[in-house]
Every structure is written in structure tokens, then in C-alpha cells.
Specification:
- With 487 residues, the protein is mainly α.
- 73% of the residues lie in helices and 0% in strands.
- It has two domains: 287 residues, no CATH class; 126 residues.
- It is built from 18 helices and no strands.
- Helix 7 crosses helix 10.
């Protein structure tokens, strides 16, 4: 028994010895492998140290410069806001001046002003008439056959204000040049910064992903993008986002010559440009809309809608989940509501005061109607961009039913009123006029006006025919039948 125990112990010792030899061989192999890895690991360590130093310096640099960039942007936005504010206040003051003068004419009394106020009012009148005359001459030169007063944008600025704006821009340009003057090209040139990041991804993609670089890329490039787009103003210029140098540079981020669709789909940075547009460009655009957009400007409305439509269709991350895009839409709707409250004014005059088309009362009435109608067109231009319910609230509830229809009823020239109604009905979106549309009940007042106008005695035949067409387009069969009996 004792011999058997000793043999078992001996066997265990032999096995332990064999295991020790195996462990020794394995350890020696591991030592050799690690010794061979030392140069690569040392190089990797140096790379991480260089990256750490580079991005630490980059963050320190941007921490200093972002404040300056924000200040420059705020100066430009304040300039645009003051510019818009002056135009809006001048427009509203012109309306008050004309309304006061016509009210005094109606009352048969003289307008009572002190000499200073009288001189200021006369100066405003001379300026307003001069701007109107210049716009008429421009339309004549452009061979514009038909134009309704009130449809053009009165956005001409005095030379003194234009010079002040030019000085602000020049000052900001000088400061923007100084801003990056002391920054090395590795930090100030977007292609150099891109090369550094792409190099990291190519050298060690695992650490690149584990550092979540993809998430912070838009923030890294943001200061340089903002500097390049400092003077970009889509409300007045035709320069597109894709025309900027940063866009063409970042489109090639991490792009290989043998890139395939499969590889592109798997690329974590495939949405880099879209994210930069969402987090930088649209954020800038939202602030520009707040400070510079005028809903009464058809050209600005057209450019802004075209830009937003293009961005939403081209860049996949731009959805309603984007807070910057939602803020942009909120700013647009708030400005339209403010314009409805402050700029829409259509006076009501008697038939005697509107006796002939060129009377002061008639001219003012027509101008104010077409200004409101232009706003109606500009609001409807947002179809497909703003929500349907918001459009209906702004265009139909707040403008058509509250102002436009009231002025159409007060129009003593029914033929003119029907012609204006034609513009309103033809401007309505087709899907609002469908049988099952939820908007149709809100157009009941418009249908009633058309039917009432068509039933008026001595209405010219062509005007009556037009009311039948409009009633038919609005889908009111009973009104069509009633009006056909008048033919």
C-alpha cells in the first residue's frame, strides 16, 4: 500500500515537472513575442502621446477662439436684426402716416403737428414716394406689364444706413482675419485637421472607435466651419452650402480609392457632412431667421424655403428630431404671427371715398390689401415644409377669414373683389380643396362670399362666370347651381 502511494506521488511530481517545463517554454515564447512587440507598442504609445498633445492644444486653441467667433456672429446677427427692425418700423410708420392723413381728410380737419413733427412727416412722405417711384421705373425697365401696388418689397435702405452696414461688415472682416492670424495651419486649415483625424483612424481604428471620435467630429470642425460661413446669408444671396470649401473637403473624409457601397454603409463617419449641416449650418440658419427674416419679403421667403427643402432632402440626419431644425421652424412661425399682428392693416372706407380708382383712399386700400395678399402667398409657399395644421391656422384662420375676406366684402367694386378672390382661390393648395379635406369647412365663409357676390344684381357676365368657376373649384355644387341660374 505504501509503495502504491509513493508511486502516485511520483507520477504527480512527474506531471508537475512536465507542466513546469511546458509553462517555461510558453513563458519564453511569450517573452520573445512581447520583446518583438515592444517597438510596435512603443510606436503606438508615441502616437497616443502625440494625439493627446495635439488635441489638448487644439481644445485650448478653440476654447480661446470660439468666444471671438461667437462675438463676430452676434455682431452680424445684431446688424441684420437692426436692419430688419428699421425696415419694419419704417413700413409701419408709413402706414400710420397715410392712415392719419386720410382720416384727417375724411374728418375735414387739418392734420395737427408741431413744426418738427410736420417736417419729419414730410420727409418720410418724400422718401416713401421716392422709393415707390424708383420701383415703378425699375418695373418699367424690366417690362413688367401688370403689377399691383403693395406686392413689391419696400426694402431700400438710405445711403447713410447702407454705409453704416458696410462699416460693420468691414470691421467684422478685419477682426475675423485677426482671429485666426496667430493659429498654426494644423489647427486653422480644415484639410490639415481632417488629415490628422483620418490618419488616426487608419493607424488604429479600434482606439478611434473606442474614443467615440465619430460623435464629436461635428464639434471639432465646428469653429472652422463657422469661420468660413461667417458672412453667409441665404436670405439675400444665392451662395449654397455646397459652395463652401469645408463642404468639399469633408465630403472626402475617410474616402478610399477602392471604396465600395458595402464599405460606405459600414463607415461610422458616413454621416459626417450631414451632422455638420445639422449641428452647425442649421443652428446658424435658425439664428439668422430669428434676426433677419421678414415674412413680407417674397424673395427671402423663396430663398429660405428652397434652402430648407434642399437641406432636408439631401441630408439624412435632418429630421424633425433635430432640435435646430425645429427651432428654425419655430422662429419662422413666430415671425409670421408677429407680422400678422403688427403689419396687416386693411382700412374700410365708404363708397364716396372710394369713388374713383385713383382716389387717395382707394389707392391706400388697394395697397394694403395686396400687401396682406402677398403675405398670404408667402405663408402658403411654406406648404410641405411647415406642418399642415400650422399653415391652416396662419393662412386661413388668421389671415384669410380675419382680414382678406373682410376687405373683399368691403370692396364696393364687385368685379375687382371677384378678381381678387380668384387670386385667393387659385393660390390655395389643391389637396385643401378635395372633398375629404379637413380644411374645406374653414373655407365656408369664402364660399358664401362668392355665392353672395355672384347673386348681386347687374354683375357683369364675365364676373358671374368667374364666380361659378371659383365655386366649382371649391367643391360647392349648390352654389354652382344657384349661380348658373343667373346666367
Amino acid at each position: 500500500m505504501r509503495c502504491t502511494d509513493l508511486q502516485e506521488v511520483s507520477q504527480r511530481h512527474v506531471k508537475d515537472a512536465d507542466q513546469a517545463v511546458d509553462d517555461l517554454v510558453t513563458s519564453q515564447s511569450e517573452i520573445m513575442r512581447l520583446e518583438e512587440e515592444i517597438p510596435r507598442l512603443a510606436a503606438r504609445h508615441r502616437m497616443f502621446q502625440q494625439l493627446r498633445g495635439y488635441f489638448t492644444d487644439l481644445v485650448d486653441c478653440y476654447d480661446e477662439k470660439v468666444g471671438t467667433i461667437t462675438y463676430l456672429e452676434s455682431r452680424l446677427n445684431k446688424m441684420h436684426e437692426e436692419h430688419r427692425g428699421k425696415l419694419r418700423e419704417r413700413r409701419r410708420q408709413d402706414v400710420r402716416d397715410q392712415a392719419d392723413i386720410l382720416h384727417a381728410m375724411t374728418a375735414g380737419t387739418a392734420v395737427v403737428f408741431d413744426p418738427v413733427q410736420d417736417a419729419v412727416r414730410d420727409f418720410r412722405v418724400a422718401e416713401r414716394e421716392g422709393r415707390q417711384r424708383r420701383r415703378r421705373q425699375a418695373r418699367t425697365t424690366a417690362h413688367v406689364v401688370r403689377h399691383n401696388e403693395g406686392m413689391s418689397s419696400d426694402d431700400e435702405m438710405p445711403g447713410q444706413d447702407q454705409a453704416a452696414l458696410a462699416n460693420v461688415k468691414k470691421d467684422v472682416e478685419n477682426q475675423s482675419r485677426i482671429c485666426m492670424e496667430d493659429v498654426i495651419e494644423e489647427f486653422s486649415v480644415i484639410s490639415n485637421l481632417q488629415d490628422k483625424l483620418v490618419g488616426w483612424r487608419e493607424d488604429d481604428e479600434d482606439s478611434y472607435k473606442s474614443a467615440y471620435v465619430t460623435i464629436v467630429l461635428p464639434k471639432i470642425f465646428s469653429p472652422l466651419i463657422r469661420m468660413q460661413m461667417l458672412f453667409w446669408n441665404p436670405l439675400t444671396s444665392e451662395i449654397a452650402v455646397t459652395d463652401h470649401e469645408w463642404y468639399s473637403t469633408l465630403c472626402t473624409y475617410g474616402l478610399y480609392t477602392d471604396e465600395t457601397i458595402v464599405g460606405l454603409v459600414a463607415d461610422p463617419d458616413r454621416n459626417l457632412v450631414s451632422l455638420c449641416v445639422e449641428k452647425v449650418v442649421v443652428a446658424k440658419l435658425a439664428e439668422m431667421v430669428r434676426t433677419g427674416y421678414d415674412p413680407l419679403s417674397s424673395s427671402s421667403t423663396r430663398k429660405l424655403i428652397g434652402l430648407l427643402t434642399h437641406l432636408i432632402s439631401e441630408f439624412p440626419t435632418l429630421t424633425l428630431r433635430s432640435k435646430h431644425l425645429r427651432l428654425c421652424f419655430t422662429n419662422v412661425t413666430e415671425l409670421i404671427k408677429d407680422t400678422l399682428d403688427q403689419d396687416v392693416y386693411i382700412p374700410m372706407y365708404t363708397k364716396a371715398q372710394m369713388g374713383y380708382p385713383n382716389s387717395p383712399h382707394a389707392v391706400f386700400f388697394q395697397r394694403q390689401y395686396y400687401k396682406a395678399f402677398k403675405l398670404f402667398q408667402n405663408i402658403l409657399a411654406w406648404k410641405g415644409v411647415l406642418s399642415e395644421s400650422m399653415l391652416v391656422e396662419l393662412a386661413v384662420d388668421s389671415l384669410l377669414n380675419r382680414y382678406l375676406l373682410l376687405s373683399l366684402r368691403a370692396n364696393h367694386d364687385l368685379s375687382d373683389a371677384i378678381d381678387k378672390t380668384r387670386g385667393v382661390v387659385d393660390g390655395l393648395p389643391e389637396d385643401w380643396l378635395k372633398k375629404d379635406s379637413k380644411v374645406k369647412p374653414k373655407l365656408t365663409m369664402l364660399v358664401k362670399f362668392i355665392e353672395t357676390a355672384g347673386c348681386t344684381a347687374d354683375l357683369p357676365r364675365d364676373a358671374l362666370t368667374e364666380t361659378i368657376r371659383l365655386a366649382k373649384k371649391l367643391g360647392n355644387k349648390d352654389a354652382c347651381d344657384n349661380l348658373r341660374l343667373k346666367l
